[in-house]
């Protein structure tokens, strides 16, 4: 892909490639400079030299002490028994590229010689095996038998260039270091994942198991599948997950695995998480050593780097042990020494830290490194010989530092060779990563992280002396970070491309299979197969536009499609030469022609038209096939095309008939379709207007409706009669939406004004409250957390949401000013005021402070109402007919209480009046208490005190409900019931019977349907008749009985029977009255007097004189309220003989907490009728008058306050004013001298 075709990801890759080249160039320059400063020793072959021994022998090992090399070997002695030191050891000095023989003085020690001779004397199979250096000690190791563990060592202390013999008892000190640089971790049961194919989860990166007959390593945590990236057979297929042993070591990108199937030897693997691949490495079981800076793992026959580089060197050695790691002074090169005890062979593997390279291993029987870094090693010959070839290599493993002194002042020298080598090694790790394909997991994350680590880890990285390595590294880091997100997109694109390839391949395989099994005797089969091949080829060609698609796959598949197409085309042409080949098409055309008459809808016509067009397409394809193929006999091609042309002629006729049929049907369907579409648009208009609740949404909905109309207009563009209707509908829509928009704007403005007014009221309260605080902390706390402030900020947000930013900013500014004014006022108070705020000190003088706010009120003075300005002597008589007529309200502060009505009684009756009695009666005490509490909270202006009036209200309400339910028809007071009887008994018989029948019928209805209200006309008739009665009877007229109440009582009393209820008190009074008359022998006179009365009114008046006189003479004052009920019983004794109710209407309510003239020692004497009548009258008359009185007083106050313009007399401080010492100490004292002399 060229740069023009590439995307962002390809551009990023190009940048990284350029940055990599820049980094390599700078590293090469730095490496050259480093070598110049610290010197450089290349590994190269110097020479092949020979060491000559006196006896033919097999060399075993060589070691260098100082500038002398000790050569150890084994001589076949035969029958000799006197073994000498020179038969085993020789000493040489390497000079002028030659090994020169030296005497054995280096080993001249009597004890050693004695021990040496005894060793060979008593162990005839003794062989010298090797030299072993541990610290400053040299061990000469001898093997005493065939067993490698049967050894004896002679221990020497190395003192610079000579040896000091220690002893022969240090065999235990001869041991190899740890063979693994890491600790194996045992897999625990917690790591087991169960399922159809259970496995062990190793660090959630790799998953292993040994069940089902195979050792499997997987990279997906999927227990439903047994497939993995590696499978090996195991000896026991029936073993379970617990039968195997699993160990692992986390080595960064690598995970070392030790897996032991049941009753088998362990198997060793290395898994690379970045590449998601695994390698089986058997040599790890013997030794595995970590490379410097965790570069990877090295073992006796190969290595595995963190970046994925892996190699196994071919050799036949097994069981090698790691002996030592040799480092060069420059910190760049390392040599790893492995030893095989049986054959006595060494494997030397060198690793370069900068280049991350491992050189080909050296396999030898002995080696030594001289002071100048010369590596000398030899290999044993199959036969004993005196001449032993030693190969000499120059290596960087010199002893000591070889730094030229002339560069000690350079910046690179001051940094140090090892630090530079380490930085170059890390930088080469970046180059290695840049050479990786992007399937390397976390490639760009690793690049960014490693680049940052280098930038942070080396202080000198940006120096010009070190070639400014920071520049390419910083660019690589930034580019890698940019690549992370882009790579995620590329991964998705590659997955998408792979999915398309898979689907296309499956589709192609299916088609090829179908073609292979298709018969060659039907033209439809040929046409179908060729059409599918043509379509498939088009899909394959279009795949070239898909990014990251496999282009070779496209080319191969397209080639195969072309071959299939050519093959089938040849068969098709041969088949078309048959006269009957095109007969199926003739039949299909005839069938379509026959179907034309049956068309009844446009949709059916279009479907038939599509089918005919498909026939046309198939025939055109046949013509293309014949035209493009090379046919030797042109007459054959002409014959086929002529046959097809005959079909085309008929086909064109059919198409014309179908088009005409569609045109005929289209006009009728268009009208119906247009009507339906217009109806749908009408419904959409209604819904859109209903949903649109903001001007913006109105505009959006209008735009959508306009688009719908445009689509409709385009759809019916061929029908001119619809255009005018669409234009009219467009105007209608615009008008409707514009009207709704104006309505919303108006509502929004009203809401904004309402919110603004609320905000100003709260602001006024906030400003007043802020002035009362005595510390800055209190003011700050108030403005930070008070609920009113939060409410104000919420209102500001509402104004902002209403798009009224000007009002919102204004309110917010006033809020800030209120806080600043409060802080300024507090500062003045603290610095100028004394004794709280009562005295202000100006200069040397002190003045009392009037703290009253200037305000206008209405007060009662000198027997009349007056206007009064607070804090002044201003009084002005008030003139208002409404206020003067409401004198009884002058001293009343609350609507809920006056001298006769306690505010708890007011609230109890209010609840009783506002709630259905049945609902209140059915409430639990807790629910009733909740209702009282709710009403108390809602009606806070009525002055209720929580804990006092709510508790008293509950007691009074309970008594009221109890009496209301218990009294039954006695709920109507005695006087009302008595006059109802007077009216009823005085009513004409015919009217009475008519009304009585209506009430009985209504009673039957109510018994079945209690909630019915279809009887109001009866109440109207009763009320009308009672008004006539009261007008004609003076005593009734003077009694001021409510006609509505009488009608209600009579209806409820007589709808079931014809008797009237009487109170027990009235019954007792009648009996007592009759007893008194009998005792005084006046009962006959009373009876005769009643009978002789001229009319009904006279009877009532006469009876009233007798009964009232009796009650006043012998009863209490309260009994007078029953006088008319007693009269009714005397006049109509037979009407109420069985309906006596003994419930008393009086009750004493105790435990009241409030204070009022009606309450004595916490007790309120309750009488149902007086209570209800009093409160009913108060609610109907006094409450409206009091509200009118209070409103009038408020309006008059506001009017005069506005006329007086009191706000102009209120002092205000400019927000920009700042009081300072000059004002306090100079300006303010000047006028106060004169003020102090004025007598206010």
UniProtKB/TrEMBL annotation:
Ranges of residues in domain DUF7902: 580-662
Domain DUF3686 residues, every copy: 22-459
Annotated protein name in UniProt: AAA family ATPase
Source taxonomy: Bacteria, Pseudomonadati, Bacteroidota, Flavobacteriia, Flavobacteriales
InterPro entries: DUF3686, DUF7902
Superkingdom of origin organism: Bacteria
């Amino acid at each position: 892909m060229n740069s023009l075709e590439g995307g962002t990801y390809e551009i990023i890759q190009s940048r990284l490639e350029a940055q990599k080249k820049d980094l390599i160039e700078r590293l090469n320059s730095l490496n050259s400079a480093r070598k110049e400063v610290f010197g450089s020793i290349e590994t190269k072959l110097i020479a092949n030299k020979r060491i000559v021994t006196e006896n033919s022998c097999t060399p075993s090992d060589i070691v260098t002490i100082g500038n002398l090399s000790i050569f150890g070997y084994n001589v076949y002695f035969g029958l000799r028994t006197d073994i000498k030191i020179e038969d085993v050891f020789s000493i040489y000095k390497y000079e002028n590229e030659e090994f020169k023989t030296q005497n054995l003085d280096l080993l001249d020690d009597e004890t050693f010689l004695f021990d040496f001779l005894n060793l060979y004397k008593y162990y005839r199979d003794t062989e010298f095996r090797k030299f072993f250096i541990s610290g400053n000690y040299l061990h000469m190791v001898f093997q005493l038998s065939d067993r490698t563990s049967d050894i004896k060592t002679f221990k020497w202390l190395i003192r610079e260039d000579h040896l000091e013999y220690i002893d022969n008892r240090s065999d235990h000190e001869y041991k190899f270091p740890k063979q693994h640089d890491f600790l194996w971790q045992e897999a625990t049961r917690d790591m087991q994942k169960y399922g159809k194919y259970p496995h062990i989860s190793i660090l959630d990166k790799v998953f292993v198991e040994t069940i089902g007959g195979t050792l499997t390593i997987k990279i997906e945590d999927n227990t439903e599948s047994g497939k993995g990236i590696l499978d090996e057979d195991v000896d026991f297929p029936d073993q379970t997950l617990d039968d195997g042993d699993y160990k692992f070591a986390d080595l960064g990108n690598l995970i070392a695995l030790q897996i032991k199937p049941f009753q088998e030897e362990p198997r060793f693997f290395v898994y690379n998480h970045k590449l998601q691949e695994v390698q089986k490495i058997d040599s790890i079981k013997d030794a595995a050593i970590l490379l410097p800076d965790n570069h990877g793992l090295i073992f006796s026959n190969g290595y595995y780097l963190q970046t994925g580089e892996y190699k196994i060197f071919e050799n036949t050695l097994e069981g090698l042990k790691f002996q030592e790691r040799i480092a060069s002074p420059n910190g760049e090169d390392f040599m790893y020494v492995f030893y095989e005890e049986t054959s006595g062979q060494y494997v030397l593997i060198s690793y370069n830290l900068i280049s991350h390279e491992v050189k080909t291993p050296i396999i030898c029987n002995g080696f030594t490194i001289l002071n100048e870094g010369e590596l000398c090693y030899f290999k044993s010959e199959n036969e004993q010989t005196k001449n032993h070839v030693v190969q000499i290599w120059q290596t960087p493993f010199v002893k000591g530092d070889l730094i030229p002194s002339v560069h000690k002042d350079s910046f690179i020298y001051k940094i140090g060779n090892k630090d530079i080598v380490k930085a170059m090694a890390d930088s080469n790790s970046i180059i290695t990563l840049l050479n990786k394909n992007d399937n390397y997991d976390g490639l760009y994350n690793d690049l960014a992280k490693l680049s940052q680590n280098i930038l942070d880890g080396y202080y000198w990285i940006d120096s010009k002396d070190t070639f400014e390595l920071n520049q390419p590294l910083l660019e690589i880091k930034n580019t890698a970070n940019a690549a992370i997100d882009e790579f995620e997109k590329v991964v998705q694109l590659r997955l998408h491309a792979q999915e398309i390839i898979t689907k296309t391949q499956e589709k192609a395989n299916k088609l090829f299979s179908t073609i292979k099994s298709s018969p060659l005797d039907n033209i439809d089969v040929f046409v179908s197969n060729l059409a599918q091949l043509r379509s498939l080829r088009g899909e394959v060609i279009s795949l070239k536009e898909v990014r990251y698609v496999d282009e070779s796959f496209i080319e191969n598949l397209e080639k195969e499609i072309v071959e299939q197409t050519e093959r089938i085309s040849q068969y098709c042409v041969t088949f078309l030469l048959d006269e009957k080949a095109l007969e199926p098409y003739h039949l299909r055309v005839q069938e379509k022609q026959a179907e034309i008459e049956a068309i009844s809808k446009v949709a059916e016509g279009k479907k038939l038209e599509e089918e005919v067009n498909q026939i046309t397409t198939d025939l055109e394809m046949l013509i293309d096939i014949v035209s493009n193929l090379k046919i030797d006999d042109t007459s054959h091609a002409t014959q086929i095309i002529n046959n097809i042309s005959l079909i085309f002629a008929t086909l064109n006729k059919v198409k014309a008939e179908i088009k005409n049929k569609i045109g005929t049907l289209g006009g009728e369907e268009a009208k119906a379709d247009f009507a339906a579409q217009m109806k749908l648009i009408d419904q959409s208009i209604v819904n859109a207007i209903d949903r649109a609740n903001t001007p913006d949404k109105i505009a959006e909905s209008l735009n959508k409706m306009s688009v719908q109309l445009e689509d409709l207009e385009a759809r019916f563009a061929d029908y001119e009669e619809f255009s005018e209707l669409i234009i009219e509908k467009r105007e209608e829509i615009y008008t409707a939406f514009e009207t709704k928009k104006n309505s919303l704007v108006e509502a929004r403005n009203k809401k904004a004004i309402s919110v603004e007014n609320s905000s100003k009221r709260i602001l006024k309260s906030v400003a007043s409250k802020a002035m009362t605080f005595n510390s800055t902390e209190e003011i700050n706390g108030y403005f930070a957390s008070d609920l009113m402030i939060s409410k104000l900020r919420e209102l500001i947000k509402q104004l902002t949401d209403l798009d009224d930013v000007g009002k919102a900013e204004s309110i917010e500014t006033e809020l800030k000013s209120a806080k600043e004014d409060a802080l300024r006022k507090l500062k003045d108070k603290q610095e100028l005021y004394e004794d709280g705020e009562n005295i202000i000190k100006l200069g040397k003088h002190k003045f009392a402070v009037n703290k009253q706010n200037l305000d206008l009120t209405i007060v009662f003075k000198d027997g009349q109402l007056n206007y009064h300005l607070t804090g002044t002597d201003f009084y002005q008589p008030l003139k208002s007919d409404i206020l003067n007529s409401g004198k009884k309200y002058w001293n009343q502060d609350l609507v809920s209480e006056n001298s006769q009505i306690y505010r708890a009684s007011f609230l109890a009756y209010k609840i009783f009046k506002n709630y259905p009695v049945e609902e209140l009666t059915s409430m639990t005490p807790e629910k009733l208490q909740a209702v009282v509490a709710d009403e108390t909270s809602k009606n806070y202006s009525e002055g209720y005190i929580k804990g006092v009036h709510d508790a008293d209200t509950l007691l009074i309400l309970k008594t009221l409900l109890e009496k209301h339910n218990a009294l039954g028809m006695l709920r109507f007071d005695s006087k009302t019931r008595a006059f109802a009887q007077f009216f009823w008994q005085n009513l004409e018989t015919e009217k009475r019977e008519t009304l009585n029948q209506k009430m009985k019928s209504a009673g039957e209805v109510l018994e079945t349907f209690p909630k019915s209200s279809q009887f109001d006309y009866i109440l109207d008739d009763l009320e009308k008749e009672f008004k006539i009665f009261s007008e004609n009877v003076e005593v009734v007229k003077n009694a001021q009985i409510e006609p509505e109440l009488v009608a209600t009582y009579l209806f409820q009393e007589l709808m079931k029977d014809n008797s009237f209820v009487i109170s027990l008190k009235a019954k007792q009074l009648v009996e007592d009255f009759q007893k008194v008359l009998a005792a005084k022998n006046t009962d006959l006179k009373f009876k005769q007097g009643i009978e002789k009365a001229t009319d009904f009114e006279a009877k009532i008046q006469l009876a009233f004189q007798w009964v009232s006189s009796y009650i006043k003479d012998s009863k209490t004052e309260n009994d007078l309220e029953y006088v008319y009920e007693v009269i009714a019983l005397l006049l109509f004794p037979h009407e109420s003989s069985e309906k006596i109710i003994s419930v008393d209407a009086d009750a004493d309510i105790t435990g009241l907490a409030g204070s009022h003239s009606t309450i004595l020692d916490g007790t309120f004497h309750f009488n149902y009728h007086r209570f209800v009548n009093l409160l009913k009258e108060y609610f109907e008359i006094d409450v409206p008058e009091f509200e009118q009185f209070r409103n009038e007083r408020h309006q008059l106050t506001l009017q005069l306050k506005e006329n007086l313009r009191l706000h102009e007399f209120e002092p205000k401080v400019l927000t920009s004013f700042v009081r300072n010492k000059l004002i306090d100490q100079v300006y303010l004292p000047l006028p106060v001298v004169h003020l102090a002399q004025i007598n206010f």
